[in-house]
Amino acid sequence: MGDALTQEEIDALMNGGGSSSSDPEPTDAAPAPSDAEPEGTLTDLEKDALGEIGNISMGSAATTLSVLLGHKVNITTPNVKLDTMSAIKDEYPMPYLIVEVGYVIGINGNNILAIQASDASIIADLMMGGDGLNPPGELNEIHMSAVGESMNQMMGTVATSLSTMFNKKIDISPPKVNLVDFSTKDTPEVDSVFGQNEPVARICFRMEVDGLIDSEIMQILPLDVAKEMVEFLMNGGPQPEEEPEPEPAPAPAAAPPPPPPAAPAPAPAAAPPPQAPPMAPPPQMAPPPQMAAQPMYAPPAQYANSAVLGAGVPVQSAQFAPLTNEPIEANTANISLIQDVPLQVTVELGRAKKSIKEILEFSTGSIIELDKLAGEPVDIHVNGQLTAKGEVVVIDENFGVRITEIVSPMERVQSL
């Protein structure tokens, strides 16, 4: 009885295979699963390529962050997925520190690096000289600036790694740091970069900081930027369309070979000359004994065994002009060709070296002590090269500099 037809199947057979009016019409489209990816294409090969790009670039960025924080940083295990910002907010409804970085050379587009606010607090505490055990409860402007500086160094290292991988120059713009709560739908800082339902490539990394942080960070890329990176990694960038090769022009017809030259007419046979009467051979003369015993010229002792020298070839030592310390005059005949080239002249009053913590504490009225004494000559640089020294003067209410010394070439080399 297990194969008996149900009443619905019997009614369908009685109606000629059609469905009854009360049954809903069948549809060909199956309901989309809840975890279906947004519209767009990102193949498994492209995901693997993005994961490899992120693994290499973030590996070098972890080294840079370790130096800045003074703690070992490990960033591993990239996970690539095609997603939307709306789905990301639903999955991570918590405050995030958003670092927006734009590519200005090599790649067209922006990307976002998202770090949990609690992890960003620990990074800010370490950047400002703390131990990371008592991070600030809320991130103020100084803390966000400290985190932004660390992210700037990280993304700069990432751009360098991408330049090496893609064999082209890649540069980024200064990062923009904002604190965004993903639990709210109104996030203009993120919406200005990505739409709510725009497909994006989300690359998640696990980040560990020496027992202080064990979390994950996200890199969010527009789909076109992600595909451009994959194309550069796999094929060296978008390939230009090949132009059809022009058809070769037909070869000109070969000229007929010239006719062979006519053979010269044989010359008439000359009459044989008259035979002269036979002469007696001259008497043999023996050479002098001195000439037969030695050659005309005897080479020096150092060339006695040389097979290159021939008998009778004169050889003498080379003569060179004596060396002098007099300066050689430069040829200035063509200096007029570049006399109108503009050069950048910079006067350096002094220098100072400060830590990031001290720079973040600057305010209006802060005094910075330089490494030069009052009244000491200032350095004059031409296109970044130390050229002269001078003293500061005032000319018609404007500052000027009077050259007091031209540095020697040795001092220029030492200043490099």
Break the fold down into its secondary structure elements and pairings.
Layout: H1 7-14, H2 44-69, E1 73-83, H3 85-91, E2 95-105, E3 109-116, H4 117-127, H5 141-166, E4 171-172, E5 176-181, H6 188-191, E6 200-209, E7 213-222, H7 223-235, H8 289-293, E8 345-348, H9 356-360, E9 378-382, E10 385-395, E11 398-406, H10 409-415
Antiparallel strand pairs: 1-6, 2-3, 2-4, 2-5, 3-7, 6-7, 8-9, 9-10, 10-11
Helicity level: 25-40%
- On the 0 to 100 scale, the average pLDDT is 75
What is the chain-wise order of helices and strands?
HHEHEEHHEEHEEHHEHEEEH
* Spatial extent as radius of gyration: 44 Å
Major β-sheet annotation: 7 strands, antiparallel
Q: What percent of residues are in strands? A: 15-25%
Features of this protein?
416 residues, alpha+beta, Chemotaxis protein chec, Surface presentation of antigens (SPOA), 7-stranded antiparallel beta sheet, 11 strands
Description:
There is one protein chain. Among the domains are: 192 residues, CheC-like (Chemotaxis protein chec, 3-Layer(aba) Sandwich), CATH 3.40.1550.10; 42 residues, Roll (Surface presentation of antigens (SPOA)). The protein starts with 6 loop residues before the first helix and ends with a helix. β2 and β3 form a beta hairpin. By secondary structure, it is an alpha+beta fold. The protein has ten helices and eleven strands. Strands 1, 2, 3, 4, 5, 6 and 7 form a seven-stranded antiparallel β-sheet that branches. A four-stranded antiparallel β-sheet has the order 8-9-10-11. About 9% of the residues have low confidence. The chain is elongated and about 120 Å long.
